[in-house]
């Protein structure tokens, strides 16, 4: 007899579930095994899943403008600011009295809708009939770190899954050979990967960050072995990894790491083509401003975003970060700073909208533009504006929203949202709704409670739906 024969073998996780389930009947056993099967299936966490209801949009491009573009200088004209320029503001800001500051730019009506747009955005103004401008946006944080986190994750302080992570968690992605969520920015981000991270969601849903447009993803080519040999090596590695994972199925980080090897291999076949902008015609590159020094960087980002969503990537987020962490943060030299930023982004954004429309993609691609908050109608110093989350502007296009619409309103000077307010939780609820997801049902159990992107708030802005 083997000297260890009297020592009982430790049951694996599935056997333990079967034993526990036997005490609760077949229904409980089925539920437990179903949960286990879900964990086992985490090797394919980005498989396409059905939405809760019929979706209007299939994919998202979020054009994030860190720092806070000024609403009263871009898409929310305020003639009263011009009339009372330099006069004391009737509203205190953080307990301080400041003088009102007129916009240095003129607003003009455009398109059949007649919506007014600042001369800062002459190219985007030509697309105004495709825009749904939200003039009553509201946030809760006056500082960049909390503001950026709330806009991107719904939470100002704690680490929470990002919007893109929630979307891929709910829907998966249409192309298993590319990441489901890609974030693109040429410079550092405030709060770093917390803006595009997955937090407690399965790790496969975090964004893949691209910062170098010339070498977007390192090691895409394997120059060491042939594809056939690499496939054999990966198969052997996967068998060993799966053996290691048998009793660790609850560890999503391990599952994501194992799957990352397979995704990396598959990406070698499609990612080089997706990221190769030289395959675009000169005409298309010019449409995005790639051929101009001032628009080349963001133009490349926008063109790449189109190529990615065209290939089935579910969520693409672009960060306009050239020149620093928050390029739209003009505490001084409002005119110089905003003109530089608008010049860098206006043509690329307009080109993106026009190109998506021409390719039949805009109808089911939701495009979002905006920063973490806006800026004060009153001056900071002589020629700047301070942070302002209590009434600012964002816009949406495509993906089932009404074009040529201005929704919401701020007061006569642009201080507070006074009509059809859209809080960030409401914006997130609306984005999920357009994708066919009920924000109250898209939950994930963590630390003993069910979490969702909108926390315990959020109302869909049904008035903006097409």
UniProtKB/TrEMBL annotation:
* Pfam families, alphabetized: DUF1501
> What is this protein's record name?
DUF1501 domain-containing protein
Q: Which organism is it from?
A: Telmatocola sphagniphila
